[in-house]
From TrEMBL:
Record protein name field: Sugar kinase
Ranges for domain Carbohydrate kinase PfkB: 9-290
Domain of life: Bacteria
Cited InterPro entries: PfkB_dom, Ribo/fructo_kinase, Ribokinase-like
PANTHER family assigned: RIBOKINASE, SUGAR KINASE
Keyword list, A-Z: Kinase, Transferase
A GO term, aspect molecular function: kinase activity
Organism this protein belongs to: Planotetraspora silvatica
């Protein structure tokens, strides 16, 4: 496979629009309910497959009905899921997302089997054979906070594999452990809050510089409606968000990562790959769920 995504796999159940939680046993009618494959590895994998990039996804799900559903959805969209392990007795990670009319997304979440993913669960030959490995949600895959996993990343990078990384949460107590991954990856794609918490900086620009100092080739800080900041040794570039009607922001970060990875794979420079990421994220923001609006190749503006 050209790309391997590795990390968090989640089932999302989404409903829109939701203005409030009904009192007691009341029912509110909504326009749409969807179930999707999500999470910083699974969601990115589905987005890559839907825009035409061959991809395998590695991670852990429970040996339960939700795991069956998640694997079925990913396979239907063309993701190679043979490296997703089933954990007997564990819950598949899942979220319930009531989407507000403005696209905001509070959530109810169970982390499930993601917490127990470890190096022994991973097909190391498949990882070594990828052109790009995308790490999704290393802040919550605690079993991969392992020197042996860092050594694997160093080995594949020496052999030419590019390693990118995104996070799942904005929980400050998880950020210190994230820093241990930075010397072992090439491109890091945090959101603004994550970047500021990780570095203690006051601005995205200062945060990006601090992240580059860890040895990265590039730090790409996503800024929501303000687009993203792309920082490399050559300097900083602001990539504006596209002006599109926003239905749901779920999965926009994963979509940005998918577009960025696809751009690198296609030979774009870092800023060009970020522009493709922006275009893919804009498609997803226009519909419900982490893969909305993706039905073929996406062109960057």
């Amino acid at each position: 496979m050209s790309v391997v995504t590795l990390g968090v796999h989640i089932v999302d159940v989404l409903a829109r629009p939701v203005e409030s939680i009904p009192e007691g046993q009341d029912t509110h009618l909504v326009e749409q309910i969807r179930i999707t494959a999500a999470g910083a590895a699974a969601g990115t994998a589905v987005d890559l497959a839907k825009i035409g990039v061959p991809v395998a996804s590695l991670g852990a799900v429970g040996d339960d009905d939700l795991g069956d559903v998640l694997i079925m959805i990913m396979k239907r969209h063309g993701v190679d899921v043979s490296g997703v392990v089933r954990k007997p007795g564990e819950q598949t990670a899942a979220s319930i997302l009531p989407i507000r009319p403005d696209g905001g997304r509070p959530s109810f979440h169970v982390p499930g089997a993601n917490l127990g993913l470890s190096l022994t669960d991973l097909d190391q030959e498949r990882i070594a054979g990828a052109e790009i490995v995308h790490l999704g949600g290393m802040d919550v895959t605690w079993g991969l906070h392992d020197p042996a996993f860092f050594a694997l990343l160093d080995k594949i990078r020496e052999n030419g594999t590019v390693v990118t990384m995104d996070l799942l949460s904005n929980m400050s107590d998880l950020m210190p452990a994230v820093r241990t991954f930075l010397p072992h990856i090439d491109y890091f794609l945090p959101n603004e809050e994550q970047a500021l918490m990780l570095t203690g900086a006051d601005t995205p620009e200062a945060a990006a510089e601090a992240l580059l100092a860890e040895g990265l080739k590039g730090a790409l800080v996503t800024l929501g409606g303000e687009g993203s900041l792309v920082a490399t040794a050559s300097g900083h570039t602001r990539v504006p968000a596209l002006d599109v009607p926003v239905v749901d922001t779920t999965g926009c970060g994963d979509a940005y990562c998918a577009g960025f990875v696809a751009g690198l794979l296609g030979g774009r420079d870092v800023a060009g790959a970020a522009r493709l990421g922006t275009a893919v994220a804009a498609r997803v923001a226009g519909g419900l769920g982490s893969d909305a609006g993706l039905d073929g190749p996406v062109e960057a503006p």
